Amino acid sequence: MEVSREQKINMYRSMIRIRQFEDMVKKLYREGKLNGHVQTCQGQEAIAVGAIEALLEEDIIFTTHRGHGHFLARGTSSKNIMAEFYGKVTGTNQGRSGGMYLVDTKRGMPVASGIVGGNICLAAGSALASQIKKDNIVTLSFFGDGATNIGFFHEALNMASVWNLPIIFLCENNQYAEATKREEHQKVEKISDRAIAYTMSGITVDGTDVIKVYETVKQVVEKARCGDGPTLVECIAYRLAGHSAGDLGGYRPRGEEEEWGKIHDPIKNYKKQLLEEGILTIQEAEKIEQEVQKEIEEAIKFAVESEEPLANTAGKFVYQEEVNG
Fold first, then answer.
1. Could you tell me the residue range of the domain that residue 162 belongs to?
2. What is the CB neighbour count within 10 angstroms for residue 34?
3. pTM score above 0.85
4. Sequence-separated (6 or more) residues with CB below 8 Å from residue 249
5. DSSP assignment of 129-194, as one string?
6. For residue 296, how many other CB atoms are within 10 A of its CB?
7. pLDDT tens-place string over residues 156-203
8. Domain containing residue 109: CATH number
9. Is 319 within a domain?
10. Which residues contact 184 (CB under 8 A, 6 or more apart)?
11. Strands 176-177 and 180-181
12. CA angle 64, 70, 72 (to 5 degrees)
């Protein structure tokens, strides 16, 4: 499968954007400048970028509470995401949700769910709608390893298999369900083996290799688009941060995070690959990193300077049934 030089560079830029954005969000949260809950995705950038690069513009994505990277990879403005973190009217949800429930309907991202596994059945419904409408759209559902123990996961895979739906179930296996190591909450060696119960294809791929993720997801997306049904894809990576920005990760074995970061950091490895292939020079890579850093700084400035929602609009966009006396 041919991957152009331009694609490879764009994927590097996108991965850098996600890492720098998440690092900055974590810093801002720890400085007390952001409220609510913040779950970042350092270490999982190759999954977001590779998978979303494999989709068409009209395809639909359902994501999770740890979904900032997915929105950035899809092209949502870092300014609007940052403004949402700050609770401003220029945010993706007009300052009403924070980072766990981002929305970008213009880019086929109807909702990010803060409920573990909560988006999986919604994604199956989206795929059913596409099948009924015959619109040739494929739906992609992101979720973590912990969500594969939830009823939503098994119900959705069962119905997707029965109805042969155009959907990709993509598990971001980052080794931990909040603070519980994967081996402590499930016995299967490969999460992709859970597809067997539903007579569905299951694939496990290195989630730290953006090209492998792209090629794998590209193949199964086209398979689904041709009417050959759903696939469960497991992408193995490691969460290089705590469950949330305030989590110091004391439940991890000493040195585990450092070891994974040294050997399996998706950005370091991809940068090395691009340099060896002659796709980028050191100077070009540094220029990209500096440009992205400036973009993130501008996003913070935009968010800080944006207007707060007015108090009298608190009930706007909330369903309220009128009761006649």
1. 5-313
2. 21
3. yes
4. 241, 242, 257
5. HHHHHT----EEEEEEGGGGGSHHHHHHHHHHHHHT-SEEEEEEE-SEETTEEGGGT---S-GGGG
6. 20
7. 999 999 999 999 999 999 999 999 999 999 999 999 999 999 999 999
8. 3.40.50.970
9. no
10. none
11. antiparallel
12. 135
